[in-house]
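A.,

Following up on our hallway conversation. Structure tokens first:
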């Protein structure tokens, strides 16, 4: 097992105990995953979480970010993130390139193409 895989497993073990918030047919974690990960490690983390957890669609990510300003479902931009505040979303590509994935930048509430090698924040959702 690779070192980063052990690290992700440890983080996942702790993250599974975070409280969640349910709204309609979606459940989300109250807090961000405690580490920013590149795309490959993010996919590994989602796989290890299991139980239907997934990255949000772009629309879900924008909605939860907007909603977090009104309700106490966790603060998307003040969880120890002092610089880059991009969140991964479930996407296959951005601008027709495999090197970019769609992310949501919370300061602007817009989508951007994030390079798959760069770490981004993670907030998971699942259908209930």
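Then the amino acids I'd put at each of the 128 positions:
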């Amino acid at each position: 097992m690779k070192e980063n895989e052990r690290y992700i497993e440890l983080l996942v073990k702790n993250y599974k105990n975070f409280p969640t918030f349910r709204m309609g047919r979606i459940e989300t974690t109250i807090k961000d995953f405690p580490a920013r990960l590149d795309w490959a490690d993010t996919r590994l983390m989602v796989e290890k979480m299991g139980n239907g957890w997934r990255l949000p669609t772009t629309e879900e990510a924008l909605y939860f970010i907007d909603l977090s300003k009104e309700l106490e479902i966790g603060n998307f931009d003040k969880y120890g993130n002092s610089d880059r505040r991009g969140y991964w979303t479930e996407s296959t590509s951005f601008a027709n390139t495999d090197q970019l994935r769609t992310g949501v930048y919370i300061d602007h509430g817009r989508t951007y193409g994030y390079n798959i090698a760069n770490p981004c924040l993670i907030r998971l959702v699942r259908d209930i």
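The first strand starts at residue 20 and ends at 23. Curious whether your intuition agrees with the design.

B.
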